[in-house]
Amino acid sequence: MITNKVDRKTKLDKAVGIVAAGAYIPIYRLPRSSIAQAWGARSIGGERSVANHDEDSITMAVEAARDCLNGVNRDTIGGVYFASTTAPYNEKGCATLISAVLGLSTNILTADFAHSIRSGTNALLAAIAAVESGQADQILVVAADIRMGYPKSVDEQMFGDAAAAIVVGRGTSKRKILASIDGFLTHADELNDVWRRDIDPFVRSWEDRWVIDQGYIANMRETVKALMMKEEIEPRGVAKAVFYSPNLRSGVSVAKSLGLDPETQLQDSLIASVGACGSAQTLLLLVAALESAKPGDRLLVAGYGEGVDAFHIRVVSQIDQIGGRKGVDGYLKSRLTLDTYQKYVMFRGLTSLPPEARLRVFEYSGATITWRLRNSILRLNGSRCNKCDSTVFPVQRICYVCQRRDDYIEVPLADHRGKIFTFSLDNLAGGVNPPVVKGVVESSEGQTRIDCLMTDCDPKEIKVDLPVEMTFRRMHEGADMYNYYWKARPVRGDNGLSSK
Amino acid sequence: MESLKDKVAIVGMGISKFGERWDASSEDMIIEAVYEAYEDAGVEPSDIQAAWVGTLRSGEAGVTIADPLKLKNIPITRVENWCVTGHEALRNAALGIASGLYDVVLAVGFEKLKDTGFPGLGTGRGTNPVYQAGATAPGYFANIATRYFHDHGWDNERGKKILAKISVKNHHNGTMSPKAHFQKEVTIDEVLKAPIISSPLGLLDCCPTTDGAAAAILCRADLASSFRSDPIFIKGIGLSVDPMLPTLRPGFDYVGFDANRNAARQAYEQAGVKNPREEIDVATVHDCFTITEMVIYEDLGFSPAGRGWEDVEAGTFTLEGDLPVNTDGGLKAFGHPVGATGLRTAHEIYKQLQGKAGLRQVNDAQIGLCHTLGGTPQVACVAILGNTKGQ
Prior knowledge:
The complex is a heterodimer of chains A (500) and B (391).
Chain A: E1 2-3, E2 16-24, E3 28-31, H1 32-39, E4 47-50, H2 57-69, E5 79-84, H3 94-102, E6 109-114, H4 119-132, E7 138-145, H5 154-158, E8 162-170, E9 179-188, E10 194-195, E11 204-205, H6 208-230, E12 240-243, H7 250-257, H8 262-265, H9 281-292, E13 298-304, E14 307-315, H10 327-333, E15 336-337, H11 341-347, H12 367-372, H13 374-378, E16 381-385, E17 391-392, E18 408-412, E19 418-426, E20 436-443, E21 449-454, E22 467-476, E23 483-490
Parallel strand pairs in A: 3-15, 5-6, 5-7, 12-13
Antiparallel strand pairs in A: 1-9, 2-8, 2-9, 3-4, 7-8, 9-14, 10-11, 13-14, 16-17, 16-18, 19-20, 19-22, 20-21, 22-23
Chain B: E1 8-15, H1 26-41, E2 50-54, H2 63-69, E3 76-79, H3 85-98, E4 104-111, H4 137-152, H5 156-174, H6 188-193, E5 196-199, E6 201-202, E7 212-220, E8 232-241, H7 258-271, H8 276-279, E9 282-284, H9 290-299, H10 308-314, H11 330-334, H12 338-354, E10 367-374, E11 379-386
Parallel strand pairs in B: 2-3, 2-4, 9-10
Antiparallel strand pairs in B: 1-7, 1-8, 4-7, 5-6, 8-11, 10-11
């Protein structure tokens, strides 16, 4: 087992730790009874999150990262580590795309962590190393997964889609950390419990008792026990155990075997409300734990996947309720019921739509075009005229008001809220979930107009003046690339505090 | 800047049958419309000295009409300006005559929409991969209806009831147009119960997807009487292209369009029209959707801003009203074969001013207006025609 070499003499608030944390849970929740009903099977109870048809691991990672970076100076981020078992590209770095969407510096580390459901905590370990070594001041770790279980399988019910993000950095006089990472321990165990070959759309697994007893429980118990011994932590000194769990029960079993009280000392696995969300799960639970933690709380965090990454984390300060930060709590409460299992099947592309029902959009794109327009497409940049101060979207070289040429600053509009100026509910455009909601958004930034599609909404609820926020989505596959852009959605999970 | 007024005459026009022309190609419809125009003007193909052809997507270059019509070695130019394309062919032909370079020219517009397998105009694309993705023409105009209703404090039910009257009127007028796509009365109830295409607009608020062609023979105004006893004179043509998509303009109110207002202002100035409501006897306007016709009433000065609906309620724009609009049934009855539409709207005014509009004839029509509007919307053309040549 590899263990860390944390300098015990470092003052707690100057330690390497968690600077910010954010989450993302898609708005749609599918009652597991709907899946069970579709197959004549037994429901495992509760509901699972389902990414919308226009979401993937990249878009969910962007949402979690934006939630996390609320109130963080983006210029100080020195790297993006993206983790997923379901990256939309087999060849192309997703972290780089995510960093561009977030408007981070181009002089940063970008790396993708893949394949293992442990890749989320793998990325966290790598981020700690980068900060400790001085390679980067702060690293954004973001994990997202959108795994699919075989139709009719328990996995199909158990899995959920989600993303979580954490900024790892060192506390300074100006930068308060939320929690210090006091120690960690990692362990690798080669076995085939769950896997997905390069040609498989669905997750495969061996016999359940092998997967749970020999794979998950044995590894978790031994690794966390070793960490507790190394860090000299008694069970009663643990405020919360934050354990990856593949199902409703197994995390509880691990906690009990370590002498912890699952009722009071185990972070809710979110299996009942979100589902098992792969590489994102441990980080998602950690974010949830930080949302309710008090200074001084000691957290034991363990992520599983062919072994375990376990962390000893001490909470230093209360998570800031920055306006606009939604977190696990906000995103959990903001939900729409997906009314049929068939919509899940459509969203994941598991069946073909009749050709006439496909979104009737010219799937037109080009690598050069999207690159030239990257600021407006990826950042939603408009231009504000230096002469007359009017802001328009997208970036215009000649001001439409005063015709001033090439004299503007670019203004990213993605993080500004807006309201619906007018809208339509379109049945002609087709797509997997008609009507297509087209909205004209008046941004809070200079009444700039953004004419875009809307998503994550009940069409019946859309009205003039409805407050909206922008969300990054997959649009189409023109030129055999994933083409991303922004849509508007009704404001989700608002904590009611002031925001842009 | 000189006015176009009374420099150019239209001495022949023809339109194909508009509809789902499964049996006819673009070439067939072009021949149908152009030979009717030749016959109407009493000209031979060899009399044509230059030609302009408008189509949005159904053809390219001058060969699009040279090939089917076997026009021999004359200058032919394809023009395109979105839904104003048909008017653009007419306008460029008129400019050609006014320049003094030509005595007799041909303007042709056509579109073959029913070969695409798509029940409607395609969704927006522009030159950007994502900005307009998922946008449809009904969607853009539904945005206008939503905002018009909102500004008037109407719910969808109230707003749709008023718009339905425009559909009922245009369908009624279409029953008297043998070449229209539809000759079918509809009731308010049918309009309200029609399937929703893009809320709040239903199927009967939308023009159909249609094939068609239209043509005009233009000549120097001073030569017009040598072709026919009842030539029609161009009094003015205004064309306006907005500098930026209205949908992206801060402060844009969605209930009126600069392109319409500016095109009308140009045309009225040339024609000397001071009070369009009083001076225009008959008009054909771009009713791609019922809400579009409503906004056009206001933009062209037929009704005060925000009060077009009062004139709709009063029946002002019906055949029996003070200012009949879309007497041939408009786009509602003729559809919108994009390149053909501008010339089709001119054709109706041409016939009305000659007193040859049959059952739908407006009494003593002397000054008429035809209009098209394109984009979201961003381009508009207004032409004023008259049946007497001024001094």
